[in-house]
Write a structure and sequence with these properties.
The chain contains 13 helices and 24 strands. By secondary structure, it is of the alpha+beta class.
Length: 431
């Protein structure tokens, strides 16, 4: 089984995760070029080498309108947040270790700047604008869905922290574009790596306090703390914000489970570096390898319903899948009083179990859920990109236990069929 293990002994931020995943893939310069070609407004990814505590790795810088995100940009964010006190503004520092002004009381926040520069960085975006930005990028629907799901987790956390509806949550422009860049990059790289499971270590969140637009807050910041509910986290002697809300959301969204590194045959290792120096190597370490499929366990949640419409059951199933369920399916059954009914089966990672239970109760009429912990056996899966007369098409390859299976990605076949006025079968036969 293709397994990705993320070692978050120094926390996680979007750019550190991007750099660590990038190191797992060949032809990194080409991938950076592809990321820059996506069309994220005003954003450029810059890849460079870095070293922490004698360990070499990669650092990713995100330049917004030609400038790397910095303390100066965030001082503007503080001012904007105070002026727009009717809005709840998110302007997260994606390279969190570089914002030393958050821990130095003597830092001067009076930076000279032009009115044009000020105006450019005082724009705010809500989830509607985020959806518009993501929808305009040259990405597959699956990757767009992943990006918006991660943003949704951040917005939900900020909504809970501020006690306002998600629709009232706004993102500061610089923080928005930096976060769009990091989240998009991680989602693209995860799609490219296509691991069967993602195991994440307990997350080091740091200690002390962090300064933001709302004042001085404890570490982990409230939004990150909310996202990391039900995730094993710990503090320590290192003072500072080691895990940002975006880093937390990306970890929680992609993790199959949290825990110790499984027994695995490591094939490649990547180090994603932060900017700031600490006594410990400031990096996220990613290990990609093979594990025995027999070690994979999932939670299976089952409930019976006999008073829901087909549309309502369909909506519940889609909602559960969008929230991270591994599989959702239904079985027709006869219920008490001879009523026809439905048995809903939801399979998920054990770390997602509580969230799935909450969603099942919210979106179905059941009053009871049964739980089974199952061991599953899966084939190792990978994705090949094949050049065809219709352009690049993804092919899914599943291998293991003496079996190899190949299948073209349905979304790619459907796109070609629509563009060419063909049936999916005709497209398959012509490839």
């Amino acid at each position: 089984m293709k397994t990705l293990y993320l070692d978050c002994g120094m926390g996680a931020a979007g750019d550190m995760l991007t750099a660590a995943l990038l190191e797992l893939l060949p032809d990194r310069e080409k991938i950076i070029g592809e990321l820059n070609a996506l069309g994220i407004p005003g954003v450029e990814f810059v890849c460079g080498k870095a070293q922490k505590c004698g360990i070499g790795g990669t650092h990713i810088s995100v330049c917004v309108h030609g400038e790397e995100e910095s303390g100066e940009m965030h001082s503007h964010g503080h001012e904007a947040a105070h002026r727009h006190d009717h809005e709840h503004t998110i302007h997260e520092a994606e390279e969190h270790h570089d914002h030393e002004h958050a821990h130095e009381p003597g830092h001067d926040h009076e930076h000279p700047h032009s009115h044009e520069h000020e105006a450019a960085h005082h724009h705010h975006s809500g989830m509607h604008e985020i959806k518009h930005i993501v929808g305009s990028l040259s990405l597959s629907e699956r990757i767009r869905k992943d990006i918006l799901a991660v943003f949704g987790m951040i917005a939900e956390a900020e909504s809970h922290v501020h006690g306002v509806p998600v629709t009232d949550i706004h993102f500061h422009e610089v923080g928005t574009m930096d976060a769009v860049a990091d989240i998009t990059a991680v989602c693209v790289l995860m799609d490219r790596l296509a691991p069967d499971q993602v195991v994440v270590s307990p997350v080091h969140v740091g200690s002390g306090q962090v300064k933001c637009a709302h004042g001085i807050l404890p570490v982990p910041a409230p939004a990150a703390a909310y996202i990391l509910k039900d995730v094993p986290i710990y503090g320590g002697e290192i003072r500072g914000e080691l895990c940002t809300p975006t880093g937390a959301a990306l970890l929680k969204y992609f993790a199959s489970r949290f825990g110790a590194m499984p027994v695995m045959r490591t094939l490649v290792i990547g180090y994603g570096m932060g900017k700031k120096d600490f006594p410990a190597a400031n990096c996220v370490r990613a290990l990609l390898g093979e594990t025995d499929g027999a070690g994979d366990t999932v939670a299976e949640l089952v409930c019976n319903v006999d008073d829901m419409t087909a549309e309502a059951i369909g909506f519940a199933s889609e909602t559960l899948l969008e929230a991270g369920a591994l599989e959702v399916y239904t079985v027709a059954a006869g219920m008490k009083k001879s009523r026809p009914g439905t048995v809903l089966h939801v399979m998920c990672a054990e770390s997602m179990k509580d969230k799935m239970v909450e969603l099942i109760f919210k979106h179905t009429t059941t009053i009871g859920i049964r739980e089974n912990i199952s061991r599953r056996y899966t084939l190792a899966r990978s994705i090949q990109r094949v050049q065809t007369p219709y352009g690049e098409v993804r092919k899914k390859i599943s291998e293991g236990y003496g079996v190899t299976r190949e299948k073209y990605e349905y979304e790619d076949l459907a796109r070609i069929a629509r563009e060419r006025g063909l049936s999916i079968r005709e497209v398959e036969e012509s490839l």
